[in-house]
Predict the structure.
Amino acid sequence: MMTTRQPKAVCYVRVSSAAQVAKGHGAESQAARCEEYARIRGYKMVKTFADKAVSGSLTERPAMKELLSFLRQHRKDNVRVIIDDISRLARGVMTHFALRQAIVSAGGMLESPSREYGEDPEDDVLEIIEAVFAGEARRKNTEQTRNRQEARFLNGYYPFSPPWGYVSETRPGQGKVMIRKEPLASIIQEGLEGYASGLFQTQAEVKRFFEGQPNFPKTRFGTVTNETVKRILTRTLYSGMVGMPAWDVAWRQGHHEGLISIATFEKIQQRLKGKSYAAARPDLDAEFPLRGAVECAECDKPMTSSFSTSKTGAKHAYYMCFNEDCSSCRKSIRRDEIEGQF
């Protein structure tokens, strides 16, 4: 007796938003429908490939690359590639047919519980029409999302993920509103006010301050990047304002509490542009009397100074060189060690 080998099938699912991934919506239900389709057809489902938080307009997708590689390795099996709906494969005509051809070239056969993929001209026309509608739906969704976000801006709300120092809270009649997230909000506030007032004379000193805070996010090397400091110093949201000039939405007072005042924010921007200098805080001389007077032994550049907080909460004072071209850059020397020589 001759036996017929059970056809193999794989499932390809895709969800476009991070929210769908976080809530578990979309991908699981797509996979369930594909598995049920395979069971009814008598296919052996061997694997599921899932692209999560990936736009339907893209052809370069991690899971799709894995799928095509799998098909090439099992070309002789004529593997069925099952998708829940045409929009799960792509959201646009060009992208759809590029991926469709890639699947066929790799040895796969595209199937879906939503439609049959034939080879005659009439099927091709219907497939083109569906791909066009899928692309138009993506464009409409993008446009509607943009309109909702712009409306939130106009009403004084920030529609995106909150920056460091804030967290979103849902309030009746307002939707999501940013509120302070402690202790990070106070750390950022101290860094901003310190730079505006002259407590921190340079961005490097702000960086050093953040690095000394156990609750401030750092790289895997335990450092804070210059880009992070610059982004915080120039983030208008921290002044309590919202806006999107790129969308022609002027800055306006937001419904969230600013970490600093607008005047303080403007002072910071002037300092960054080099158009003004903040007077040193009155007690700086008492804390670091040799600031600006003591020089690095390696490069002869003036050393700066700051406090560092240990894990126990104790503060330690240091002098250090921030000349990037110096071999002693960022090497700290205890205040007592230097001042004890005078």
Notes: The longest strand covers residues 44-52.
